[in-house]
Write a structure and sequence with these properties.
alpha+beta; 2 helices; binds zinc ion; 2 domains; 143 residues
């Protein structure tokens, strides 16, 4: 049975038994999981991060962006979760899927690269500190 509506369930740890029609969200571990809405029983894990999925929360409803594309499963279902509703989308062709997977990988690499760069930039700049000290010391000998 295809699921038309999901209920968000906020958890710390993902439970062992995933019930159909529920979206388990662990904000601590930044991940969400649900059973594929087509009813095939496959569990779909959606990591929550700027390059994976973004969770939009309203009062009692949630939306996940981008869409859920279960191309690794036999059902190949593709749908959006918008305000707790499951909105079915067109199936992608094999070629389209390959394109998206390539783009995802690319985005992820860029994201990781930019994160690493930020970390490097935020390290204290030891060399320039030494240089300043050296200039300071030198200034005493100028006269
Ligand atoms: Zn399915």
């Amino acid at each position: 049975m295809a699921v038309k509506k999901i209920t968000p369930v906020y958890v710390e740890f993902i439970p062992d038994t995933i019930e159909e029609g529920k979206l388990y969200i662990s904000e601590v571990y930044q991940t969400a999981i649900h059973k594929c809405c087509c009813g095939c029983g496959e569990e779909v894990v959606t990591p929550l991060s700027p390059v994976d999925w973004q969770l939009k929360k309203d009062m009692n409803s949630v939306s996940l962006r981008p869409s859920i594309g279960n191309w690794n499963y036999r059902c190949k279902s593709h749908y959006f979760i918008t305000n707790n509703r499951v909105i079915w989308a067109n199936r992608f062709t094999q070629r389209r899927i390959a394109n998206i997977q390539t783009k995802d990988r690319f985005d992820k690499q860029n994201y990781i690269a930019s994160k690493n760069k930020q970390e490097v930039n935020s390290l204290p700049d030891r060399d320039s500190w030494l240089l300043k000290l050296w200039r300071f010391i030198k200034s005493f000998f100028r006269n």
